[in-house]
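Action item from last meeting closed. Structure (282 res):
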Protein backbone atom coordinates (compact mmCIF):
# COMPACT_ATOMS: atom_id res chain seq x y z
CA UNK A 1 0.00 0.00 0.00
CA UNK A 2 2.81 2.39 0.91
CA UNK A 3 4.56 1.60 -2.37
CA UNK A 4 1.39 2.36 -4.35
CA UNK A 5 0.96 5.71 -2.56
CA UNK A 6 4.57 6.63 -3.29
CA UNK A 7 4.14 5.82 -6.97
CA UNK A 8 0.94 7.91 -7.17
CA UNK A 9 2.63 10.85 -5.42
CA UNK A 10 5.62 10.58 -7.76
CA UNK A 11 3.39 10.55 -10.87
CA UNK A 12 1.32 13.52 -9.64
CA UNK A 13 4.50 15.46 -8.84
CA UNK A 14 5.90 14.73 -12.30
CA UNK A 15 2.67 15.87 -13.97
CA UNK A 16 2.49 19.03 -11.83
CA UNK A 17 6.12 19.87 -12.68
CA UNK A 18 5.52 19.33 -16.40
CA UNK A 19 2.47 21.62 -16.35
CA UNK A 20 4.39 24.31 -14.47
CA UNK A 21 7.28 24.08 -16.94
CA UNK A 22 4.88 24.42 -19.85
CA UNK A 23 3.16 27.48 -18.37
CA UNK A 24 6.32 29.18 -17.11
CA UNK A 25 6.89 32.50 -18.85
CA UNK A 26 8.30 35.94 -18.28
CA UNK A 27 9.30 39.33 -19.67
CA UNK A 28 12.76 40.87 -19.24
CA UNK A 29 13.80 44.41 -20.15
CA UNK A 30 17.35 45.09 -21.37
CA UNK A 31 19.33 48.30 -21.88
CA UNK A 32 22.10 48.38 -24.49
CA UNK A 33 24.98 50.76 -24.97
CA UNK A 34 28.14 50.80 -27.05
CA UNK A 35 31.37 52.66 -26.34
CA UNK A 36 32.50 54.87 -29.19
CA UNK A 37 36.20 55.71 -29.23
CA UNK A 38 37.13 57.69 -32.30
CA UNK A 39 39.87 60.31 -32.33
CA UNK A 40 40.47 62.28 -35.50
CA UNK A 41 43.11 64.95 -36.01
CA UNK A 42 42.20 68.61 -36.41
CA UNK A 43 42.56 68.47 -40.20
CA UNK A 44 39.63 66.04 -40.38
CA UNK A 45 37.33 67.47 -37.72
CA UNK A 46 37.60 70.13 -35.01
CA UNK A 47 36.99 69.27 -31.34
CA UNK A 48 33.49 70.76 -31.24
CA UNK A 49 32.29 68.77 -34.26
CA UNK A 50 33.89 65.62 -32.90
CA UNK A 51 32.12 66.05 -29.54
CA UNK A 52 28.77 66.50 -31.29
CA UNK A 53 29.38 63.46 -33.48
CA UNK A 54 30.32 61.18 -30.58
CA UNK A 55 27.29 62.31 -28.56
CA UNK A 56 24.97 61.60 -31.49
CA UNK A 57 26.51 58.16 -32.04
CA UNK A 58 26.22 57.36 -28.33
CA UNK A 59 22.48 58.10 -28.42
CA UNK A 60 22.04 55.89 -31.49
CA UNK A 61 23.49 52.92 -29.61
CA UNK A 62 21.48 53.43 -26.38
CA UNK A 63 18.38 51.30 -26.82
CA UNK A 64 15.81 49.39 -24.77
CA UNK A 65 14.65 45.88 -25.68
CA UNK A 66 12.03 43.49 -24.35
CA UNK A 67 12.59 39.73 -24.19
CA UNK A 68 9.37 37.71 -23.85
CA UNK A 69 9.96 34.03 -23.12
CA UNK A 70 8.63 30.67 -22.06
CA UNK A 71 10.53 27.41 -21.63
CA UNK A 72 11.19 26.89 -25.36
CA UNK A 73 10.54 30.14 -27.25
CA UNK A 74 11.35 33.84 -27.03
CA UNK A 75 10.92 37.09 -28.92
CA UNK A 76 13.30 40.03 -28.65
CA UNK A 77 11.98 43.45 -29.71
CA UNK A 78 13.23 47.00 -29.48
CA UNK A 79 10.94 49.35 -27.59
CA UNK A 80 9.77 52.28 -29.68
CA UNK A 81 11.52 55.52 -28.78
CA UNK A 82 9.59 58.79 -28.57
CA UNK A 83 12.17 60.52 -30.72
CA UNK A 84 14.63 58.84 -33.04
CA UNK A 85 18.12 60.33 -33.37
CA UNK A 86 18.78 61.94 -36.72
CA UNK A 87 21.52 60.71 -39.01
CA UNK A 88 23.83 63.59 -39.89
CA UNK A 89 24.02 67.07 -38.43
CA UNK A 90 23.24 70.14 -40.48
CA UNK A 91 25.12 68.83 -43.50
CA UNK A 92 28.45 68.93 -41.65
CA UNK A 93 28.82 65.17 -41.75
CA UNK A 94 26.93 61.94 -42.21
CA UNK A 95 27.23 58.76 -40.14
CA UNK A 96 26.51 55.44 -41.79
CA UNK A 97 26.40 52.46 -39.44
CA UNK A 98 27.13 49.07 -41.00
CA UNK A 99 26.13 46.11 -38.83
CA UNK A 100 26.32 45.87 -35.05
CA UNK A 101 23.20 48.02 -34.64
CA UNK A 102 22.00 45.69 -31.89
CA UNK A 103 18.35 45.60 -32.95
CA UNK A 104 15.76 44.41 -35.41
CA UNK A 105 11.98 44.47 -35.68
CA UNK A 106 11.52 41.00 -34.15
CA UNK A 107 13.95 38.21 -33.28
CA UNK A 108 12.17 34.91 -32.59
CA UNK A 109 14.14 31.96 -31.19
CA UNK A 110 13.10 28.38 -30.56
CA UNK A 111 15.79 26.78 -28.41
CA UNK A 112 14.12 23.35 -28.46
CA UNK A 113 14.26 23.20 -32.27
CA UNK A 114 17.53 25.21 -32.37
CA UNK A 115 16.34 27.73 -34.96
CA UNK A 116 15.48 31.41 -35.26
CA UNK A 117 13.45 33.77 -37.42
CA UNK A 118 14.39 37.44 -37.58
CA UNK A 119 12.11 40.01 -39.17
CA UNK A 120 14.21 43.00 -40.20
CA UNK A 121 13.30 46.29 -41.85
CA UNK A 122 16.42 47.11 -43.89
CA UNK A 123 16.50 50.30 -45.95
CA UNK A 124 12.69 50.22 -46.20
CA UNK A 125 12.42 46.54 -47.23
CA UNK A 126 11.21 43.76 -44.92
CA UNK A 127 13.34 40.60 -44.73
CA UNK A 128 12.56 37.35 -42.93
CA UNK A 129 15.87 35.75 -41.97
CA UNK A 130 15.49 32.06 -41.11
CA UNK A 131 18.36 29.87 -40.00
CA UNK A 132 19.71 27.53 -37.32
CA UNK A 133 20.83 28.91 -33.99
CA UNK A 134 24.58 29.12 -33.66
CA UNK A 135 25.94 26.62 -31.15
CA UNK A 136 27.90 28.68 -28.64
CA UNK A 137 30.76 26.87 -26.90
CA UNK A 138 30.27 28.45 -23.48
CA UNK A 139 32.93 28.01 -20.80
CA UNK A 140 31.19 28.00 -17.43
CA UNK A 141 33.09 29.82 -14.68
CA UNK A 142 32.85 29.83 -10.89
CA UNK A 143 32.70 33.63 -10.43
CA UNK A 144 29.41 34.95 -9.08
CA UNK A 145 27.70 38.29 -8.54
CA UNK A 146 24.20 39.64 -7.96
CA UNK A 147 22.27 41.45 -10.67
CA UNK A 148 19.32 42.92 -8.82
CA UNK A 149 17.99 40.16 -6.59
CA UNK A 150 19.32 37.33 -8.76
CA UNK A 151 22.59 35.46 -8.07
CA UNK A 152 24.45 35.11 -11.37
CA UNK A 153 27.31 32.99 -12.69
CA UNK A 154 29.93 33.98 -15.25
CA UNK A 155 30.33 32.27 -18.62
CA UNK A 156 32.56 33.12 -21.60
CA UNK A 157 33.22 32.10 -25.18
CA UNK A 158 35.67 33.20 -27.87
CA UNK A 159 34.65 34.19 -31.39
CA UNK A 160 36.31 35.60 -34.50
CA UNK A 161 34.86 38.88 -35.71
CA UNK A 162 35.60 41.58 -38.25
CA UNK A 163 37.78 44.26 -36.73
CA UNK A 164 35.86 47.55 -36.36
CA UNK A 165 36.92 50.12 -38.91
CA UNK A 166 36.31 53.78 -39.60
CA UNK A 167 36.05 55.13 -43.12
CA UNK A 168 36.38 58.88 -43.55
CA UNK A 169 34.68 60.48 -46.57
CA UNK A 170 34.40 57.08 -48.28
CA UNK A 171 38.12 57.09 -49.02
CA UNK A 172 38.17 53.56 -50.40
CA UNK A 173 38.92 51.74 -47.16
CA UNK A 174 35.56 49.98 -47.41
CA UNK A 175 36.87 48.04 -50.45
CA UNK A 176 39.66 46.44 -48.46
CA UNK A 177 39.29 42.98 -46.98
CA UNK A 178 38.29 43.49 -43.31
CA UNK A 179 40.78 42.35 -40.69
CA UNK A 180 39.70 39.61 -38.29
CA UNK A 181 40.29 39.46 -34.55
CA UNK A 182 39.45 37.16 -31.65
CA UNK A 183 37.08 38.47 -29.00
CA UNK A 184 36.09 37.05 -25.64
CA UNK A 185 32.39 37.46 -24.89
CA UNK A 186 31.34 37.47 -21.24
CA UNK A 187 27.83 36.70 -20.00
CA UNK A 188 26.20 36.49 -16.57
CA UNK A 189 23.26 34.11 -16.15
CA UNK A 190 20.98 33.14 -13.27
CA UNK A 191 19.94 29.50 -12.67
CA UNK A 192 17.02 30.87 -10.61
CA UNK A 193 15.24 31.49 -13.92
CA UNK A 194 15.62 28.04 -15.54
CA UNK A 195 15.45 28.90 -19.24
CA UNK A 196 18.29 28.93 -21.76
CA UNK A 197 17.28 32.23 -23.35
CA UNK A 198 19.07 35.56 -23.51
CA UNK A 199 19.05 38.92 -25.28
CA UNK A 200 19.86 39.30 -28.97
CA UNK A 201 21.86 36.34 -30.34
CA UNK A 202 23.03 35.04 -26.96
CA UNK A 203 21.49 31.84 -25.54
CA UNK A 204 22.34 28.30 -24.47
CA UNK A 205 23.22 28.73 -20.78
CA UNK A 206 21.56 26.92 -17.83
CA UNK A 207 19.66 30.03 -16.81
CA UNK A 208 18.42 33.35 -18.22
CA UNK A 209 21.28 35.62 -19.38
CA UNK A 210 21.03 38.97 -17.58
CA UNK A 211 24.22 40.69 -18.74
CA UNK A 212 26.50 40.53 -21.79
CA UNK A 213 29.83 42.19 -22.62
CA UNK A 214 30.80 41.74 -26.27
CA UNK A 215 33.63 44.06 -27.26
CA UNK A 216 32.33 47.61 -26.86
CA UNK A 217 28.71 46.41 -26.63
CA UNK A 218 27.09 46.02 -23.20
CA UNK A 219 23.61 44.59 -22.57
CA UNK A 220 22.17 44.67 -19.05
CA UNK A 221 18.80 43.46 -17.76
CA UNK A 222 17.00 46.20 -15.83
CA UNK A 223 13.67 44.52 -15.04
CA UNK A 224 12.16 41.02 -14.88
CA UNK A 225 8.51 40.01 -14.51
CA UNK A 226 7.90 36.26 -14.08
CA UNK A 227 4.53 34.68 -14.81
CA UNK A 228 2.70 37.99 -15.31
CA UNK A 229 -1.09 38.12 -14.87
CA UNK A 230 -1.61 38.69 -18.58
CA UNK A 231 -0.39 35.77 -20.70
CA UNK A 232 2.79 36.49 -22.64
CA UNK A 233 2.13 36.24 -26.37
CA UNK A 234 5.05 34.74 -28.30
CA UNK A 235 4.52 34.42 -32.04
CA UNK A 236 6.95 33.75 -34.86
CA UNK A 237 7.06 36.59 -37.45
CA UNK A 238 5.98 35.62 -40.97
CA UNK A 239 6.16 38.77 -43.11
CA UNK A 240 9.00 39.67 -45.44
CA UNK A 241 11.26 38.21 -48.12
CA UNK A 242 12.58 34.90 -46.78
CA UNK A 243 16.37 34.46 -46.85
CA UNK A 244 18.99 32.64 -44.80
CA UNK A 245 21.63 34.48 -42.75
CA UNK A 246 24.38 34.19 -45.38
CA UNK A 247 22.18 35.67 -48.11
CA UNK A 248 21.03 38.48 -45.82
CA UNK A 249 24.65 39.34 -44.95
CA UNK A 250 25.45 39.59 -48.67
CA UNK A 251 22.51 41.96 -49.18
CA UNK A 252 23.61 44.09 -46.22
CA UNK A 253 27.17 44.33 -47.56
CA UNK A 254 25.92 45.45 -50.96
CA UNK A 255 23.54 48.03 -49.45
CA UNK A 256 26.30 49.34 -47.18
CA UNK A 257 28.56 50.00 -50.18
CA UNK A 258 25.69 51.77 -51.95
CA UNK A 259 25.16 54.00 -48.90
CA UNK A 260 28.85 54.85 -48.75
CA UNK A 261 28.81 55.77 -52.43
CA UNK A 262 25.75 57.91 -51.87
CA UNK A 263 27.46 59.99 -49.18
CA UNK A 264 30.83 60.13 -50.94
CA UNK A 265 31.70 63.73 -51.91
CA UNK A 266 31.48 64.24 -55.68
CA UNK A 267 34.57 65.42 -57.53
CA UNK A 268 34.51 69.14 -58.13
CA UNK A 269 31.73 69.69 -55.59
CA UNK A 270 32.24 73.13 -54.09
CA UNK A 271 31.29 71.72 -50.68
CA UNK A 272 33.77 68.87 -51.05
CA UNK A 273 36.21 70.24 -48.49
CA UNK A 274 33.45 70.78 -45.91
CA UNK A 275 31.64 67.46 -46.26
CA UNK A 276 32.35 64.62 -43.90
CA UNK A 277 31.12 61.05 -43.72
CA UNK A 278 32.02 58.24 -41.32
CA UNK A 279 31.33 54.57 -41.82
CA UNK A 280 31.67 52.18 -38.88
CA UNK A 281 31.85 48.44 -39.44
CA UNK A 282 32.50 45.40 -37.29
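Sequence:
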Amino acid sequence: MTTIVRVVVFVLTAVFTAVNAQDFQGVATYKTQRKVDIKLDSTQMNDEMQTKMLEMMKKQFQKTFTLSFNKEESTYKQEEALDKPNVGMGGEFQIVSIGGGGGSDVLYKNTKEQRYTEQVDTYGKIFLVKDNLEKIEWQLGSETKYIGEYPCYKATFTKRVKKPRVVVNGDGEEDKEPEMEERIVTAWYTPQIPVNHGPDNYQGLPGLILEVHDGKLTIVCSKIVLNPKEKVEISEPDKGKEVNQEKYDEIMEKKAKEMIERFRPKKGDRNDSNSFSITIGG
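Note appended to the action item: DSSP finds three helices and 15 strands in the chain.
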